[in-house]
Here is the input.
Amino acid sequence: MTDIIRKDGRTPDQLRAVTIERGWSDQAEGSALISFGKTKVLCTASFTNGVPRWKSGSGKGWVTAEYAMLPRSTNDRMDRESVKGRIGGRTHEISRLIGRSLRAVVDMKALGENTIVIDCDVLQADGGTRTAAITGAYVALADAIEWAREKKFIGQRSQPLLDTVSAVSVGIIDGDPMLDLAYVEDVRAETDMNVVVTGRGLFVEVQGTAEGAPFDRSELNSLLDLALLGTTELAVLQNAVLAAGAAGE
Amino acid sequence: MTDIIRKDGRTPDQLRAVTIERGWSDQAEGSALISFGKTKVLCTASFTNGVPRWKSGSGKGWVTAEYAMLPRSTNDRMDRESVKGRIGGRTHEISRLIGRSLRAVVDMKALGENTIVIDCDVLQADGGTRTAAITGAYVALADAIEWAREKKFIGQRSQPLLDTVSAVSVGIIDGDPMLDLAYVEDVRAETDMNVVVTGRGLFVEVQGTAEGAPFDRSELNSLLDLALLGTTELAVLQNAVLAAGAAGE
Amino acid sequence: MTDIIRKDGRTPDQLRAVTIERGWSDQAEGSALISFGKTKVLCTASFTNGVPRWKSGSGKGWVTAEYAMLPRSTNDRMDRESVKGRIGGRTHEISRLIGRSLRAVVDMKALGENTIVIDCDVLQADGGTRTAAITGAYVALADAIEWAREKKFIGQRSQPLLDTVSAVSVGIIDGDPMLDLAYVEDVRAETDMNVVVTGRGLFVEVQGTAEGAPFDRSELNSLLDLALLGTTELAVLQNAVLAAGAAGE
Amino acid sequence: MTDIIRKDGRTPDQLRAVTIERGWSDQAEGSALISFGKTKVLCTASFTNGVPRWKSGSGKGWVTAEYAMLPRSTNDRMDRESVKGRIGGRTHEISRLIGRSLRAVVDMKALGENTIVIDCDVLQADGGTRTAAITGAYVALADAIEWAREKKFIGQRSQPLLDTVSAVSVGIIDGDPMLDLAYVEDVRAETDMNVVVTGRGLFVEVQGTAEGAPFDRSELNSLLDLALLGTTELAVLQNAVLAAGAAGE
Amino acid sequence: MTDIIRKDGRTPDQLRAVTIERGWSDQAEGSALISFGKTKVLCTASFTNGVPRWKSGSGKGWVTAEYAMLPRSTNDRMDRESVKGRIGGRTHEISRLIGRSLRAVVDMKALGENTIVIDCDVLQADGGTRTAAITGAYVALADAIEWAREKKFIGQRSQPLLDTVSAVSVGIIDGDPMLDLAYVEDVRAETDMNVVVTGRGLFVEVQGTAEGAPFDRSELNSLLDLALLGTTELAVLQNAVLAAGAAGE
Amino acid sequence: MTDIIRKDGRTPDQLRAVTIERGWSDQAEGSALISFGKTKVLCTASFTNGVPRWKSGSGKGWVTAEYAMLPRSTNDRMDRESVKGRIGGRTHEISRLIGRSLRAVVDMKALGENTIVIDCDVLQADGGTRTAAITGAYVALADAIEWAREKKFIGQRSQPLLDTVSAVSVGIIDGDPMLDLAYVEDVRAETDMNVVVTGRGLFVEVQGTAEGAPFDRSELNSLLDLALLGTTELAVLQNAVLAAGAAGE
Here is the structure.
């Protein structure tokens, strides 16, 4: 497998260059501008006291997410969903995925009756926007929680974050499993899988789709191996970025 | 594992009673009213000549699907999406899943420039509505294709169906993997997975979500084993129903 | 007039085969699957405590209805109103008609501050969907009220139902008045009338429309005679179905 | 019956003061500002060559109507439907009624492949807005057809108008049938009926609704008698107004 | 400049015939039907106790406005915004302009926690609809405030109106500045400016747009001179109309 | 005037630090990330062959713009317009302003039947987003035109750009005119004006609004003086950035 060299010079098990610009926003309680190669996603975390009505009085917090693409983040300009007056299925699907992924590593009791809204806006798209969004959103979330702790909105001993979480795409191209697909690879993939994994290596989401021919169990296993390789590397990066000092410093 | 008996008397690896009433509709080219226990989904397949503009001239056909729930299919009445004026994320997500699942077993070249729209309307919901929908939709699709062959809209030798396809939910409840979750089980599941499988046993979709704690690789494997057990049984039933004579006879 | 035999073998003053499957739904407080020939409408009644804000404190209840058609209930598939993002005029008109018709036989004081929402979903359409909906909705409504009495949400001596109510279509085809038009008759009718009548034979709604030539007073009278014949028969059936034992038994 | 004097001094069988200001608009091909007492409706008829796609090539024309109320036409300000983003059921219902009523007196063949859109905008509402709208719309329609004849868009010998059409409301208040209900009467009526009648005295629409107790056949007959009295008077007025010289002169 | 005679016989610095029919509506607390030549706008002011939630408890009132055009107010019929399901940018822009213009002359403290909603509906359009709307809306507003004073909803000594306000359009056509453009002039104007001015001659809004070539400072000054001429005349008319006795008398 | 020092250390006639990152996007034909202090707007220009239907065959091109804010570009998170399902009045207003401003410096004949869509997405907001958007959009537009010239979509000798265009806000705070208001200044301004000016110093748009007390002619003149100062400086910067070599180099 390692003999294959991809169009952009990577080996099959290699991530694109990943950078996380923590504290990008002057406005949000937490933020990160993340790049997976040419894919750039601005992630902000907005902290507010209180929870939606249906959670009120539960003593628990809430974390939710919204994903969107700028109209010219892609090669051909897309119409704005605000102009169309409705949000498309893909947008809904990814927003829900990001929300679920982050909630999986948050102890809602420890968060208390507070809400964190994550916004992931794709500034430039080159494949893997949802996985970059999850990975960057975690950093924004962590900083928003730290901000709330400093402001005493959550207790000094509360540990709302149970673990880190990151995500990566994997796929089979011409029969070969590949890690972190760029757009040109994504459109050619027979099978496409997005995997969300905690820092401890446990699965939060596994979403595999046969775009071409259905896949068998051994292909599924190869893809999962590759994905775990990628998320392990991303977790290391997340921790390094967060250890580098408070956001904005 | 087999010692566990579920609330409704099933063993962990047992499907609910599944029935398929083929040719339920007098109007549609193909149809099936499918039940997974108390879950009832009416699936219709509407065949029309021609394809959407973006496929026109490709020589290939198109299969798409829409899923919806009647407002009182559930225990508490839900507002209609037509009244709210927008389709929710969950509805979008499931419609897209059904469409992808069916397209995975259709040879679009053999279908020719024809379109089949699948409608899956949940008349009663008790968990597993999306998996029942996929399983029933396959039967409606097969009959719509047979209808088109008889009407000579597709050639006598064309074989647009490459395989059967069915789906089932699996989940982990109190640490135990279970097949085909009813609603009361679904809300308690720590991990919830929907698996779409072809008649040959290949995966079309694997969508696993940690609702509670993240899951490890061995749990994932147990769930996949269980799912394949279920879809094998469903494929046998689909074939039996379709072999029983033309719809409406 | 009785010498005429219609396409489906009926005499001009004959209803189609009418069946009412009471208690079809496991979820709703009252329900009925009604058929007028090939027209099939699933009617559910959802009971909730409390009333909309504008009725609050009045001591009176509220009954409202929503009507919709499944996309492939008709011969050609219709787009979903949820997908179009707006409800059409015909749907609105029929929903309002059903609601008014049922409210005409409900004593809102006796109902108390409770709300019953009726959903009428057309599973298959062959003319007369609104009249079948009203006729079936009455049965669902009666069972929901009975359910509420058993649950003590309304008093044991309260009699919220003042009378039964049913509806039928009539029309003039080639100059001849006909009862309960099937779709092929409906499109040919010069005049089309929907009549809603209580068990005592009083009018709740009379909606006559000249689709072709305007009609005179004697034609109007013949149509009303025919309609009363039909609703009398439907009232007998409603009472028989409701007398047959509690729903679900 | 004639002994009763209503709040505004009318006898039960008396219309309110009706005025028709023909040619009110400088822009529309036909127009009329009609008053039924304090109810004022601006009716315009817009003539365009061509028909909607579904009528194209049929050699027949099309007439359609839209009804709306200004937000402060009523005693309490209503929200604009444009602001709410959706048209209410009542608006839809009345727009459809106006369109059907006018089409009943138009020979679509004689109109040729031309479209007339009628707009009825209620400037002030005091009951009977839909009946005033139909009555005024007929005048606007007649002038638009005359305009098209002068412009040679329809042949000199074509007679697209088969008859006049007008409408009036009737109702039962405290047991007494009354003609042309003002708003304060309308809210008290037990039964409310809108009747659309041609110049020859034939029915186009009969829409009777029991707002309180259901009504019997003899009440229905009294209401129809009264309605025919009113529409006869309105037809005389329409003819007088149209005979008074071309619009705008 | 005064040698130029416009198509409709006006000199460059001449307003069209302006009429204000005060108290046009029987329903609204204040109203005016204003004409600028063929442009006719119905302005109503609806007074209600209380303010929107975000102003509640501030002791201050609120004034807002909505502008709309009837579909056939223009030469070609426009689709209704209620039918399109969304309000266009131009409508939004003008509604906001009218609201701001009126708020500029209202002392919100003196108004107290009361809301006045201004509706400006264009019945006929021939250029200058927004400026006619502002000018007429002021009269409706003044009467609604007077009504509220009589009803004691605002104190006898409160003077919520700080000044009058009116508006006019000016533009450069073939190099010549012109006052109060009719539609045929408006479409030819190289520069188009709407100016809102108080009775004391102070600016509330200045909105100048180069439709063709950009304009220089001296052109801007000529346009402002002309606009002040027009608004001075309009203020005189407003005062005369309001001095003529209470609305409705 | 020059003695006054603002909160952020600027003199009244001083712009904030303005930076333009040309060619920010790898996808768009032209792009610029512009900052006015903390305000950051991503401007992209999308070039496509052909024009909207209503311009087709005219031989002229079209330039249009859309403006939007990221939900957490502001201090408090705003709801997304795509989620609300409708675009607000302010968004519409600014999109239209940007489009008009750019069209004022484009020779549509020279552009030929091509369309350029400008997207201005506010990544961070601190006042002056619309003026930053116009200023940055010009740079993106210029590069898209250059790109089209290289691709031969427009002739080598065609000069679609007639001039540069930039914009700045000015306002009166505590009686003092100030240039380029930051958000904290903007909310305190009595009068607020946005001025769009070409490189030659001609006005494209002048939009002045009295937020508090109306303003007089001499205040208007001071604001225009200040604005011209600012736009002159911005034009110099635009030219410098565009002279620095092709985008992406």
Chain B has a mean pLDDT of 94.
